[in-house]
């Protein structure tokens, strides 16, 4: 068994990292007008450079900007697409304990892609990683534009038929994928967590109650991913991340991957899957039996929701359990989700975050070489 030289890597991470104190202070000052745009960007740049260095120092090969320029993992990308408007409203996605996000998106025009500020964000990352590191970009998957609000957030006059909406979203994402590629991106991740939500009976009932068909929605979403990745360049590695919600260490959904495993692994042209398996809510490893040769699953065995450090022996035991259903060579290791899907971050300290990432690198070296 050898170390992988292309994504996903044996030791990998989902994308977001806890915002540092200087970045948080700068964001607050910028919001009040005490810090202008140029000064704020200079602090963002400096903090991202330090973050890149830390990732490389502990041995990660896929390096992100920690999503440091974002407030939210999903809204910040989607609201910059053509035809999208951000509004203050119940997102419809309440986390356990009643925690919600008072922001949503409304479709007010034809969805499209005519450029995006995150292209420049990627270029900064690209220009600041060391030789031998792979800059990784993360964006929400195309299904998220529909899953978060459903039909009620889509202007009926613009999209009287949902098929046209789904088609335009897929086409817009296809332009985005190629724009990142043209900027030098060779490792792009779609955070398309709706597929994991569709494994939860309560979420399926929510869809049914608002007028969607949970039996057909998975294939509709998969078709959007296929459209997004149409004519994908051969040297562009695409991964998909699935989780069950991640906001201040809370969650939304539960349920194993069995209902969507075959569709997930065999109908979408992605190279790897970051999958949450840090607790019993995620079910067992049996769905891995559907993984075809040539694809990889990154086992999210290390939780990003608490600072409690996992046992290396327990991680190895669980990797061994997973390898009963798929070849060990098709597996990798990561946290189950990002550490800060929103700027607030999860309830753990920065040093606890870095110890978890170091543990992942050490364990992967001992398991795969």
UniProtKB/TrEMBL annotation:
CDD domains: CIMS_C_terminal_like. The keyword DNA-binding does not apply. One of its GO terms (molecular function) is 5-methyltetrahydropteroyltriglutamate-homocysteine S-methyltransferase activity. Gene3D superfamilies: 3.20.20.210. The keyword DNA damage does not apply. Residues 13-348 form the Cobalamin-independent methionine synthase MetE C-terminal/archaeal domain. Keywords: Methyltransferase, Transferase. Transmembrane segments: none annotated. GO terms for biological process: methionine biosynthetic process; methylation. This is 5-methyltetrahydropteroyltriglutamate--homocysteine S-methyltransferase. It comes from Bosea vaviloviae.
